[in-house]
Design brief:
The complex is a heterodimer of chains A (244) and B (188). Chain A is built from 7 helices and 2 strands. Chain A has helices at 29-48, 58-77, 86-103, 115-137, 155-167, 169-202, 204-240, and strands spanning 19-20, 23-24. A two-stranded antiparallel sheet of chain A has the order 1-2. In chain A, strand 1 (19-20) and strand 2 form a beta hairpin. The longest helix of chain A has 37 residues, at 204-240. The termini of chain A are far apart. With 188 residues, chain B is an all-alpha fold. Chain B has 3 helices and no strands. In chain B, helix 2 (33-166) runs antiparallel to helix 3 (172-187). Classes of the chains: A mainly alpha (244), B mainly alpha (188). Chains A and B meet through strand 2, helix 1, helix 2, helix 3 and helix 4 of A and helix 1 and helix 2 of B.
Chain lengths: 244, 188
């Protein structure tokens, strides 16, 4: 079913079946592309930090630009206190970025187009940030649900809204990335299918769309990685600097 | 135009048929969910540790080194500039001093030369004056001394001439009187 636009998202196992206590932990194509992205990241960073030059070469320059980019993003949104979490945000951004970009290659698999992967990230961030907030501020962290300057009459409603919005954070964070990646790749596949079915006569029209969409998808791949990282920073900021 | 529309509709239909063939999203199939999370945890945590322990310190170190080098270079450049400015000031001051000195030396030597010249001039003039005075005195003395001598010589010559011509001596006093008379006539 090569022309089914959803087929590209199917997961199948590669190699032997690994079962621990009846749980299937087999190495799948998703794991393979995670590994490929990770390898590319490590290679990129390895070449980027191989030579310590005062005047950097291209790879070193890119790695330094990436470092400054993430560093600036964190200090702009979460302030100085977020410095210990810089490696995590950096890894998160670069991992999602590389997974998205590797997904743009033809015949590849997009790791971040799976809700379970993005949900795992989002839940980890959500739980981590909540624990961090309670560890730093104690029960004062609950103040996050009580915005200052709200009339007492409105307070219960506002609190309920705030609690719902807080609890929906992992859902919105994960679904945003997952849906963006899935929708983009499905669209690309659908237009690709049009090119084949319309043939030489009218196939150029969806082909043009396809080319334009590929450009758009590369932008989206970067943008979604950025959005994911910056939202993580914003949540971190809420936990670190409680001034609601 | 109609042809294109037909193509598009047939294309859409064929795609729809394929949709129907395998409906649903593979993302919602929980078979490999735990496997995906498991491998994600392993791979992402290894990336995290490598990035945190190895790459970020490296990049940060390199950025810091560059910043330090740039700052040091700028400081050094500023220092050198200040030094150069100082040297330039000293140079300018010494040039001004040298010019002033040269002017002073020139004017001094001119004054000295002028003084020397005027002193020499005065000396020479006074010497010349003395010489002139001496010469005048000599001439005067010569004039005063010469008259009686000339008279006595003339008298002798006259008496000798008369003796040679007439063979006898003439009265000396008459000769003297005649000569004095003639001399007076010359003087006048």
């Amino acid at each position: 079913m090569a022309s089914n636009p959803m087929h590209q998202f199917s997961v199948y196992k590669i190699g032997p079946e690994i079962k621990i206590n009846g749980v299937d932990l087999s190495f799948t194509n998703a794991s393979l592309f995670m590994l490929i992205s990770a390898t590319l990241i490590l290679l990129f960073l390895l070449f980027g930090t191989k030579e310590k030059k005062i005047i950097p070469n291209k790879v070193q320059l890119i790695s330094e630009i990436l470092y400054s980019f993430v560093s600036k993003m964190i200090s702009d949104t979460a302030g100085k206190k977020a410095k210990p979490y810089f490696p995590f945000i950096f890894s998160l951004f670069i991992f999602i970025l590389f997974c998205n970009m590797v997904g743009m290659l033809p015949y590849s698999f997009t790791v971040t187009s799976h809700i379970i992967v993005t949900l795992a990230f989002a839940l980890f961030i959500f739980i981590g940030v909540t624990i961090l907030g309670f560890v730093i501020h104690g029960f004062k962290y609950l103040k996050i649900f009580v915005p200052s300057g709200v009339p007492i009459v409105l307070l219960p409603i506002i609190m309920i809204i705030e609690i719902i919005s807080y609890l929906s954070r992992p859902v919105s964070l994960s679904v945003r990335l997952f849906a963006n990646m899935m929708a983009g790749h499905t669209m690309l596949k659908v237009f690709g299918g049009f090119v084949i079915s319309l043939g030489l006569v009218a196939g150029w029209l969806p082909l043009t769309f396809s080319v334009a969409l590929t450009g758009l998808e590369i932008l989206v791949a970067f943008l979604q990685a950025y959005v994911f990282a910056i939202l993580t920073c914003i949540y971190l900021n809420d936990a670190l600097n409680l001034h609601h | 135009m109609n042809k294109t529309l037909v193509f598009i509709t047939t294309g859409l239909l064929s795609v729809n048929n394929l949709f129907a063939a395998e409906a649903g999203m593979p993302q919602l199939d929980p078979t490999y969910w735990i496997s995906q999370v498991f491998w994600l945890a392993i791979i992402f945590s290894s990336i995290y540790f490598l990035v945190a322990k190895m790459f970020i310190p490296k990049i940060k170190g390199n950025l810091d080194t560059r910043e330090n080098k740039i700052r040091k270079d700028i400081e050094e450049a500023n220092l050198l500039k200040e030094e150069a400015d100082k040297k330039l000031k000293i140079y300018n001051a010494s040039i001004i001093e040298a010019k002033a000195n040269a002017k002073k030396i020139i004017s001094d030597s001119r004054k000295k030369l002028n003084e020397d010249l005027s002193i020499k001039k005065k000396q020479i003039e006074s010497e010349i004056q003395k010489e002139i005075e001496n010469a005048e005195k000599e001439i005067q003395r010569f004039k005063i001394n010469s008259t009686p001598k000339m008279i006595s010589i003339s008298e002798e010559i006259v008496s000798n001439v008369i003796k040679d011509i007439f063979g006898e001596d003439l009265n000396k006093s008459s000769i003297k009187a005649t000569v004095t008379e003639i001399n007076k006539g010359y003087k006048n």
